[in-house]
UniProtKB/TrEMBL annotation:
CDD domains: DSP. It comes from Sagittula stellata (strain ATCC 700073 / DSM 11524 / E-37). This is Tyrosine specific protein phosphatases domain-containing protein. Residues 126-171 form the Tyrosine specific protein phosphatases domain. Signal peptide: none annotated.
Length: 208
């Protein structure tokens, strides 16, 4: 498949998959999906998904549904999105600084804990479920969600490998694709990020 292909490969799994319930202070359900699931607003609303975390640097969405500034003169529309949207631009392979996976974890943890101001300029509610997506929901999102589950729910996922095994099953990833779901360098980045998170929780951040 060429790098400039516009469509992610098609796999026999749902557009979005529920991965784990009861995560974070609002008890969110964490989902994983690819680009087809992430752009299906009706599907997201059905599952009370109010937070979208996009792991892919080579994929974006037009989520503005309340336009404050119209497009024109070389400018794009600006306004409020259909949901709370966070972007972590990771490559599905080599080329990511190791800190990017940790940044993804911190963004996810922050999104789970944000308290929205009661002001018209913040038309969002606290809580809701979370969809983590990449192009196909097989690698970048699998690594990041596995990291989140291990750090946020260590009693259920005491090791990162436990979390990865659970995510592979919940996302319906076949054993013959496990070698790249997630890609080895992303799994290694998740291991490093888990060590960083543990060191920060202990009050002694690591330095590279």
């Amino acid at each position: 498949m060429k790098d400039d292909d516009r469509s992610a490969p098609v796999y026999d799994r749902p557009a979005i998959s529920p991965i784990a319930e009861g995560i974070g202070p609002h008890g969110a359900t964490i989902y994983i999906g690819g680009m087809e699931g992430a752009r299906d607003m009706a599907l997201l609303r059905t599952h009370d998904i109010r937070v979208l975390v996009n792991c892919a640097v080579n994929l974006d969405f037009d989520l503005v549904d309340r336009v404050l500034m119209d497009p024109g003169d070389g400018k794009v529309a600006a306004g409020y999105g259909a949901l709370r949207y966070y972007k972590i631009g990771m490559i599905d392979g080599d080329g990511n600084p190791s800190a990017m996976m940790l940044a993804g974890l911190l963004i996810l943890q922050g999104a789970l804990r944000q308290t929205m101001p009661d002001r018209p300029t913040y038309p969002f509610k606290d809580g809701g479920n979370v969809l983590v997506n990449c192009r196909a929901g097989r690698s970048r999102s699998v690594a990041l969600v596995s990291l989140l589950l291990h750090v946020e729910a260590p009693e259920r996922f005491p090791t990162l490998d436990d979390a990865v095994a659970h995510v592979r099953e919940a996302r319906q990833l076949r054993p013959d694709e496990w070698f790249e779901t997630p890609k080895p360098m992303l799994l290694e980045a998740a291991r490093e990020a888990a060590a960083w998170a543990q060191a920060m929780a202990a009050g002694s951040p690591r330095s590279e």
